[in-house]
UniProtKB/TrEMBL annotation:
Ranges of residues in domain Polyphosphate kinase-2-related: 29-254
Superkingdom of this protein's organism: Bacteria
Protein name: Polyphosphate kinase 2 family protein
Alphabetical UniProt keywords: Kinase, Transferase
Listed GO MF terms: kinase activity
InterPro entries: P-loop_NTPase (IPR027417), Polyphosphate_phosphotransfera (IPR016898), PPK2-rel_1 (IPR022300), PPK2-related (IPR022488)
The organism's taxonomic lineage, starting at the top: Bacteria, Thermotogati, Deinococcota, Deinococci, Deinococcales
Species per Swiss-Prot/TrEMBL record: Deinococcus sonorensis
Gene3D superfamilies for the chain: P-loop containing nucleotide triphosphate hydrolases
Length: 269
């Protein structure tokens, strides 16, 4: 089954209604088929990442956003396992510290953007500061829209300096979130993941839906697009993201550097 990745892309100015977007895989695709395809895409991902690292001229920033239990950690673990650890940095942004709150909201973000040759993954990101802060009414609508523009400007600057920005919203249903949270309670080995605060956030489901829709609409640009990834089934999520990473890196077209030396004439005794 062929999947058109453009179907998941939020085009600039396009209205977003999450309730109309699938959270699950299409009929006709099995987890076994997806596993085979994912392995093939990850082989290509590994080769492209090696070229990106060797070239050391471009970089890739992958932003992961989702509701609680949406699959951000699982994506990092299962999709990026194909990548050489030397070429990737994962940053998880927690509640801002006192020092971070004393600066503008993007201050703590910029230091973690990828250097040339690297892939950086943000597990949560600067978008928390227009999502959580809005839902909890820590900032007003005027500030939300100001931050939207500041984010777009920031990402445009990164793009102009050679960093490709790829933003993924992992789209799960409310029922799937309930199952995953319950699983954390039922499995002793997963209880460490459970946070009672997740239930408070779950009660704000509609508020977060509105916040995500507005954010996706306002900040999906040509140079830093959002993709809404169906994520109820982890195997389908992994397949789509693996393919999307490969297609993105192929478009970046990193090349192994060439040597000015006459390497053909060198013999090692």
């Amino acid at each position: 089954m062929k999947v058109d990745l453009s179907d998941f892309r939020v085009r600039p100015g396009e209205p977003v209604k999450l309730k109309h977007l699938d959270t699950h895989a299409p009929d006709g695709l099995s987890s076994e088929q997806a596993a085979v395809q994912t392995a093939q895409w990850q082989e290509r991902l590994a080769r492209l990442q090696d070229r990106l690292y060797a070239e050391a001229k471009q970089s890739l920033l992958v932003v992961l956003q989702a509701r609680d239990a949406g699959g951000k950690d699982g994506t990092v673990k299962h999709v990026f396992e194909a990548v050489n650890p030397q070429g990737i940095i994962v940053t998880s942004f927690k509640v801002p510290s006192e020092q971070e709150r004393a600066h503008d909201f993007l201050w703590r973000i910029h230091a973690h953007t990828p250097a040339a040759g690297m892939i950086a993954v943000f597990n949560r990101s600067h978008y928390e500061d227009v999502l959580v802060t809005r839902v909890h009414e820590l900032i007003d609508k005027k500030e939300v829209h100001r931050r939207y523009q500041q984010i777009c400007d920031f990402e445009a600057m990164l793009s102009s300096q050679g960093t490709r920005v790829l933003k993924l919203y992992l789209h799960i249903s409310k029922d799937e979130q309930r199952k995953r949270l319950q699983d954390r309670l039922d499995d002793p080995e997963k209880r460490w993941k459970f946070n009672p605060a997740d239930l408070e956030e779950r009660a704000r489901w509609s508020d977060y839906t509105d916040a995500y829709q507005d954010t996706l609409e306002a900040t999906s640009t040509e140079v830093a697009p959002w993709y809404v990834i169906p994520a109820d089934q982890k195997w389908y999520r992994n397949l789509l993201i693996s393919k999307l990473l490969v297609r993105t890196l192929e478009d970046m077209d990193p090349r192994y550097p060439t040597s000015k030396l006459d390497l053909e004439s060198i013999q090692i005794d």
